[in-house]
Design a protein that fits this description.
CATH architecture of the domain at 1-84 and 163-173 and 196-253: 3-Layer(aba) Sandwich
CATH topology of the domain at 1-84 and 163-173 and 196-253: Rossmann fold
Number of helices: 9
Distance between the termini: 44 Å
Strand content: 15-25%
Strand order of the largest sheet: 6-7-8-3-9-10
Largest sheet: 6 strands, mixed
Helix content: 25-40%
């Protein structure tokens, strides 16, 4: 069975002040799968994310969502495409002055005509999916780091997106909490048949949960393959990064 491509990046090029961050980058993200993007800090992973959701415009190249070239869309059409995405930000990005319920409900309050009762039911459903029930009235300051991540994820899924973008979802978490977040990514992908795109430095866990892994270096995708395949890749940059070694062509900055 041929995989359907949900997101396709074609020859994407982006420079800032003469510095090429992305250079003719090509990437295909299959629908309903977990794709991880690995690479060193400063390699342009977040810049790639911003192009995918239309927050940045390429210097050259195109991004397609469901075969629609998003650079051709006007503001209203682009907003409709963005509604297909949920985002879990690196720091969870919760509003400290809002309760858990208010944080999760925020996208629906802003972008839907649902009643308060309907929104509250959706908040409960989202919390159940991230295995955090009964904490609606807590403040973010009362939550652990792992709980904040889950609340951020509950907010990301409340509008029933087709794609979730995870920006370093386990940053600042201990190994046990990090593993629980990775298990949750897998659980949501299976329960919701959702397309997941994960930026991460956590190589060891990524090898366990991702369907495919793409390594970004020098503004290009060096390789994009399954976890079983990537450990056999002979490219010295890939091998050094997977090994987490300071010895090799990737220089310590």
């Amino acid at each position: 069975m041929v995989e359907k491509i949900k997101i396709e990046v074609r020859e994407l090029t982006k420079s800032f002040a003469g510095n090429d961050v992305l250079r003719s980058l090509n990437l295909k993200i299959p629908e309903g799968k977990i794709t991880a993007i690995i690479g060193r800090s400063g390699e342009g992973k977040s810049v790639l994310f911003k192009h995918i959701i239309g927050l940045m415009t390429p210097d050259l190249g195109d991004v397609y969502i469901d075969d629609m070239k998003i650079s051709d869309l006007n503001g209203h059409e682009l907003n409709k495409v963005r509604a297909k995405f949920g985002v879990l930000f690196q720091g969870s990005a919760l509003f400290d002055s809002m309760t858990v319920r208010e944080n999760i409900a925020f996208p629906l309050v802003e972008h839907s005509r649902l009643s308060l009762n309907e929104i509250n039911l959706k908040v409960k459903d989202s919390l159940r999916l991230v295995e955090l029930e009964g904490i609606e009235d807590r403040m973010p300051s009362q939550l652990s780091g792992g709980m904040r991540k889950r609340v951020g994820l509950a907010r990301a899924i409340i509008r029933e997106p087709e794609v979730i973008l995870y920006d370093e979802p386990t940053t600042g978490l201990d190994p046990i909490l990090a593993d629980s977040i990775h298990n949750l990514i897998v659980s949501l992908q299976e329960k919701l048949n959702i397309t997941s795109l994960v930026i991460t430095h956590d190589v060891s866990n990524t090898l366990k949960f991702a369907h495919s892994i793409a390594m970004l270096h020098g503004g290009e995708i060096l390789t994009h393959c399954t976890p079983d395949e990537i450990v056999l890749v002979e490219d010295p940059f890939v091998r050094q990064f997977l090994a987490g070694s300071s010895h090799g062509p990737l220089k310590v900055l």
